[in-house]
Design a protein that fits this description.
The complex is a heterodimer of chains A (295) and B (328). Chain A is mainly alpha-helical and 295 residues long. Chain A has ten helices and no strands. Helix content of chain B is 34%, strand content 21%. The chains are: A mainly alpha (295), B alpha/beta (328).
Chain lengths: 295, 328
């Protein structure tokens, strides 16, 4: 019990410290708050503003007004409401793809760096070959074969395609860290391999891992949007990519009044990406004590 | 005589570099009793750091044996392996690379204390950490515990490195150029700290340095060993090695140390080398490896036979064909 209590109070202290560090970087705080807002809106919003089920023929392709803040689409449905309901998929895809591909990359990359020798050479050669395959066309082909009905399957597939590039970067990080003097000191103090990996090595590459994860997330969002836009992934559910694709097909190019229908989801994607990237910038300070002004 | 703490028997270490074999350490024999201060001096590439790393168990030997309390460190039973692993610690040269930048001083010191159950509970750990910081002259200790390494100076970091080594109560510390990268003004106080560890806690110290003047100061009560191209060429009590150097290489090194008084330095006879080029480790000279540069070169025997390290005068062991076994 004592240990659990210690752990929880330690976790609490760490979180407060992290928030304090975050709050000192205006860009990072802005990104962090924006991310929290988008996630809240996407996961809680649908309960407050459920999706409209019927079309409103009288209100097709309208511009912004007091009634419809972001206008209406080709079915006369409110764009803002659609954006609130379409965020969940995007957030899920970003998180699952980003975290999963980074997890695989950390495991494979560190393993390769630690074992070394022919295992390392073989793994990295496979990664090299993998990197030469153009991912987007491959994803397009796979998507037709695998019938990607839900976001989770699509995210896992993207993660599986994405990890090799990250694994290479993780490997080089581990290679440069594992010969540091302080790792040697930990070996002499007989602290054990798990501690050396989790306390000496990983924390020193956390900022790299976190920032790469975030960039993998933004990449995943663009990829998903592209796939929907090309019509490769069936748009069974409503999300921002589906909104763009639908607006394009329903004549937004010929009807200037419908511009809101394509600009609104685009803006949503851009704002989410902006939030992620500006948050990534401040993560450096959280993980690297040298960059902090003081704690 | 009691059993030495560390014994090196015909220790050799080779490295393969691009298909060629470099012998970094060659046939080194050494006995270090518990609580002794020993300085290894030599120019860069002479194998002094490699020797230190082998003693600390960071590099395996290629040939020969290293014994810790009479046991070969390459073949220890688990319980003995632990006593060796914790018994011999090392302080690195670069204080800016030897501490994990994302951990506070308290994290760094608490890890070995808690992992090996030297202390129990947070309060006891903190108390022990304060004691350790006081031993290495970081006072008041509470000013340092919650700092990160980058907030400390080079000398302070080096003290933290020593405190970290002391967490596991070692019997022996290998200090690899441990004072070379800190300010000259800090060096003396660091060396005094090592001397105090020896006097008060009986911790043996092997100081590896390229600076003979520093070795002379530090090892005054102990021994100095001089290495040249992987071999130990002279070893003996510091006063004898400095006062009566017998190997020509040691003589040259000592003649090159400037004295505090410029007039004395100018008047000091300087022994000239026959060649200032250090031979490549890939193509070591035959016989005595020092013969191409040796000011006392005595002809064929030097170029043909490797001199053995044997007892010469004044209690020193010297590897030179010309050294005479005589007592003063």
């Amino acid at each position: 019990m004592q240990a659990i209590g210690d752990f929880l109070s330690g976790l609490w202290r760490e979180s407060v410290k992290t928030l304090k560090i975050l709050s000192r970087n205006k860009m990072g705080l802005f990104g962090f708050i924006l991310i929290v807002l988008i996630v809240l809106l996407s996961f809680v919003g649908p309960f407050i503003w459920p999706p409209e089920t019927s079309a409103n023929v009288t209100e097709i392709n309208q511009g912004a007004s007091a009634q419809h803040w972001l206008g209406t689409d080709f079915q006369g449905q409110d764009n803002l409401r659609k954006i609130i309901n379409g965020g969940k998929d995007i957030v899920l895809i970003a998180v699952i793809t980003g975290v999963l591909s980074m997890l695989i990359a950390v495991v494979v990359g560190s393993f390769s760096a630690f074992v070394g020798g022919w295992v390392d050479s073989l793994l990295m050669e496979l990664v090299n070959i993998w990197l030469t395959i153009p991912k987007f066309p491959l994803l397009a082909v796979l998507a037709t074969v695998l019938a990607l009905k839900d976001v989770v399957t699509l995210s896992v597939l993207m993660a599986v395609l994405e990890w090799p590039a990250l694994a290479r970067q993780v490997r080089s990080q581990v290679l440069s860290l594992k010969n540091r003097d302080y790792v040697e000191a930990a070996v002499m103090l007989d602290l054990g391999t798990p501690r050396i990996i989790f306390r000496e090595l990983l924390p020193n590459m956390m900022s790299f891992v976190a920032i790469s994860t975030i960039f993998a997330m933004t990449h995943a969002i663009y990829q998903q949007t592209g796939l929907v836009f090309l019509g490769i992934v069936p748009y069974s559910s409503a999300n921002w990519g589906v909104m763009i694709s639908a607006a394009e097909r329903r004549g937004v190019l010929f009807n200037p009044q419908a511009a809101w229908s394509i600009l609104a989801p685009m803006a949503a994607i851009v704002i989410f990406q902006l939030a992620l990237v500006s948050f990534a910038r401040s993560l450096d300070e959280v993980f690297n004590p040298r960059l902090r002004t003081s704690v | 005589m009691s059993e030495p703490l560390i014994t090196l028997e015909h220790v050799q270490r080779t490295f393969d570099v691009k298909g060629q074999t470099i012998t970094a350490v060659n046939d080194v024999n050494l006995e270090i009793p518990a609580g002794e201060v020993l300085c290894l001096v030599g120019e860069s590439g002479c194998g002094k750091t490699t020797t230190g790393k082998m003693i600390a168990g960071l590099l395996p030997v290629s040939y020969g044996r290293i014994l810790f309390r009479g046991q070969d460190i390459a073949a220890l039973a688990p319980a003995e392996r632990k006593s060796y692993r914790l018994g011999v610690q090392m302080v690195h040269q670069d204080p800016y690379a030897s501490l994990n930048p994302v951990q506070t001083i308290a994290d760094i010191l608490a890890a070995p204390l808690q992992h090996h159950r030297f202390t129990r509970g947070e309060a006891e750990t903190r108390k022990r950490m304060r004691e350790l910081l006081e031993i290495v002259d970081l006072t008041p200790p509470d000013d340092y515990l919650d700092k990160y390494p980058h907030q400390l100076s080079g000398g302070q970091r080096q003290r933290v490195s020593v405190a970290r080594a002391l967490t596991v109560n070692p019997a022996f510390i290998v200090a690899d150029e441990a004072v070379s990268m800190v300010d000259v003004s800090i060096r003396i106080s660091l060396l005094k700290m090592f001397t105090r560890l020896k006097d008060e806690m009986g911790v043996g110290v092997l100081l590896i340095t390229h600076d003979l003047a520093l070795a002379k100061y530090f090892a005054w009560e102990g021994r100095i060993g001089v290495m040249y191209l992987g071999r130990l060429v002279e070893i003996g009590p510091a006063r004898q090695v400095v006062g009566h150097p017998q190997h020509p290489y040691t003589q040259v090194l000592l003649s090159a140390i400037p004295e505090a008084d410029p007039d004395v330095t100018r008047a000091k006879p300087r022994i000239a080398l026959r060649s200032t080029d250090v031979p490549s480790l890939l193509r070591l000279p035959t016989g005595c490896t020092f013969h191409p540069r040796c000011p006392a070169f005595a002809g064929e025997v030097c170029a043909r036979e490797v001199p053995a390290l044997k007892r010469a005068g004044w209690g020193s062991d010297v590897a030179c064909h010309l050294a005479q076994a005589h007592e003063p």
